[in-house]
Design a protein that fits this description.
This protein has helices at about 10-25, 30-50, 105-110, 125-150; strands at about 60-65, 75-80, 85, 110, 120. The chain is α+β, with helices and mostly antiparallel strands and about 150 residues long. A 3-stranded antiparallel beta sheet has the order 1-3-2. A two-stranded antiparallel ribbon has the order 4-5.
């Protein structure tokens, strides 16, 4: 299960994010810990799957709550429930002085080589990590939703 939020009326996206934050605050410590553990697994898998030359891009992989958490450029994996996983950041440079956000999407999604015009396939390390952990994420989210339904009389 994934949630994709787009906005066309100047407010629905922010309202939805705020509602998700309120729901998140009502989670029991056990359910929060379960979600946190699954997201930690997603993070570790994404770091492990990230192609590494210098390690700069892998160092920018993070889990953010809400809609991409004020991300500074880069690439975003799917938003699942109240979080998403991102890679790349304008403020993190590789050893050549290039911001990781400038090449995060090329590494993840692929790109056309500027001189040859050949397509260079990406390696979707964020999606691989999400897919690997999706069954655990869905189980944890279903427990959260069931718990919230019981709390709110649904």
């Amino acid at each position: 299960m994934s949630i994709q939020i787009t906005e066309d009326d100047n407010g629905t996206k922010r309202l939805t994010i705020n509602k998700l934050k309120k729901v998140s605050k009502r989670l029991t410590p056990e359910l929060r810990a379960e979600l946190d553990q699954v997201w930690d697994n997603v993070l570790m898998d994404a770091i492990g799957e990230c192609p590494i030359l210098s390690g700069a891009l892998a160092s920018t992989i993070r889990i953010v709550e809400g809609a991409f958490g004020g991300m500074m450029g880069g690439v975003v994996g799917r938003m699942v429930f109240d979080r998403s996983i991102t890679a790349g950041d304008e403020t993190i440079l590789n050893p050549r002085g290039v911001p990781t956000s400038h090449y995060a999407s090329s590494v993840h999604d692929g790109y056309t080589h500027p001189r040859s015009g050949n397509w260079i396939a990406g390696y979707p390390f964020l999606e691989i990590a999400l897919d690997r952990n999706m069954a655990d994420l869905e189980r944890a989210i279903n427990r959260v939703l069931k718990s919230l339904g019981e709390k709110f009389g649904d």
